[in-house]
Amino acid sequence: MQHLRGTVRRAARTAMLSAGAAIFLLIGLLFLTLAAWLYLVTVTTTLTAALILGAAYFGVGFLLLALAGADGNASRQPQQQEAPVSTEHDGLKNLVMAFLAGITAGQKARR
Predict the structure, then answer these.
(1) What confidence score (pLDDT) does residue 51 get?
(2) Helix %, strand %, coil % for the chain, to 5?
(3) Considering Cα of 31, then 37, then 40, then 41, what sign does the dihedral take?
């Protein structure tokens, strides 16, 4: 029961932090859009500025849709076989395993 409460608490904390982050990201996007609008209006006409910003948001939207749709296609691809493990570092691996075995034996001897 305690594990479930901790899991729910962490999930709620993550959700609240994510919602807060999303709000601040939207506010930042609003200010960046406003700054881009003000800059584009000083350089070009209002119609051109609106077209540029609209096209930019349209392009980002399509890019996000493409990225969202890419997950469905990735699951259909066959899984690749794992590369064989190289035996290049077997000596180092054996040394570390022997060191850990020695530490474990030492801890058992103290008890």
Answers:
(1) 94
(2) 85, 0, 15
(3) negative
